[in-house]
């Protein structure tokens, strides 16, 4: 159930995706480019959120392919999540999140807050830095509109960085034995 909720949240976040198209935005080629970009991001999000290590290489490739079209930091954010899943590399994760933050990605800012507030991935809590990220979030258009609230964004990033539940193998029906 929790996995379905996370995947649903990732689908909702798909609206954050953006693309660059050098042709008419309504052209067939531009629509196809946008669909491929959105598909790559969606597949990468699912692979990362399910926690299946066998999918991490593909998730990395999908994020790399979609990165040139991303203007809002979504690929940077998910690259940071992938790094966390593969084993904390705090300095690299922070660099990735800061790239996403500069592009205004709300969940990257919420995760930066979490990192400095708890602390998470770092050894020492930094309340001043955490507060700086909370204020940065408050200045985003999404925060000014009220969706997602800072608390909801924190809740989401907390779920995304938790270890995903292990999938149990499905029982084999009697006819396949």
TrEMBL record:
InterPro entries documented for this protein: TPR-like_helical_dom_sf (IPR011990)
Protein name, as recorded: Sel1 repeat family protein
